[in-house]
Design goal:
The protein is an alpha/beta fold and about 210 residues long. It contains four helices and ten strands.
Length: about 210
């Protein structure tokens, strides 16, 4: 197993850049610490805004996306809806009082942003809370349930689809950014800070 931090917090030009690499068991504690730091710096006028980087985030449990999105939206707002072929749909609303309700925000996505990360990006965009920069996301709008079988086998069964607040089902289509920018990788898959045109554009928008 290769352990990767869920959260990476850096600062560029008085802008907080919060990269969320995954939705995992340790994400909540790391997220709370990072959010507390950003909130204090913003309230003290030490930073002007933030960039939430969801690029190459493969997602995770739907509840994780609700938790993250709730940091930026007022209580009562719908984060995502879950629809079944039979039976009533289920609405997931903001589930706690957020600390980053007014900070200027841009969200970065790319074709590696999937599932829960698409929910976060999509709902913040639908509510007019953030602009999206980067590339169209992966497009996974289904909900799976893990079923254990004998002899250590298992299967994931699709049981529902999730819908963004504006009614969009992004399965196979993804979330489209407001500003489309592709990064060019010159040496394998390594991207230097100087080559990261997506982050540069996101910071530019926040500063404006």
């Amino acid at each position: 197993n290769i352990q990767v931090d869920s959260i990476e917090l850096t600062y560029e030009k008085n802008i907080a850049v919060l990269k969320l690499n995954k939705f995992g068991d340790d994400t909540t504690a790391e997220w709370k610490n990072a959010v507390s730091t950003i909130s204090k710096k913003y309230n003290a006028h030490e930073i002007k805004g933030m960039v939430l980087d969801l690029r190459d985030n493969p997602g995770g449990y739907l509840e994780g996306s609700v938790f993250i999105a709730s940091e930026f939206l007022p209580e009562g707002k719908i984060v995502v809806k879950q629809e079944y072929k039979t039976g009533p749909s289920k609405k997931y609303e903001v589930n706690h009082a957020g600390k980053l309700l007014t900070i200027p925000l841009v969200v970065l996505i790319n074709k590696g942003s999937a599932s829960a990360s698409e929910i976060v990006a999509g709902t913040l965009h639908d509510h007019g809370r953030a602009q999206l920069v980067g590339e169209q996301s992966f497009g996974k709008g289904s909900v799976q349930e893990a079923v254990d079988l004998k002899d250590g086998a298992g299967i994931h069964v699709t049981i529902a689809k999730w819908i963004l607040p504006n009614g969009q089902w992004i399965n196979h289509t993804g979330v489209k950014p407001d500003v489309i920018i592709e990064n060019n990788y010159t040496e394998g898959n390594t991207l230097t800070k100087e080559q990261d045109l997506q982050l540069e554009k996101a910071i530019e928008i926040v500063i404006k």
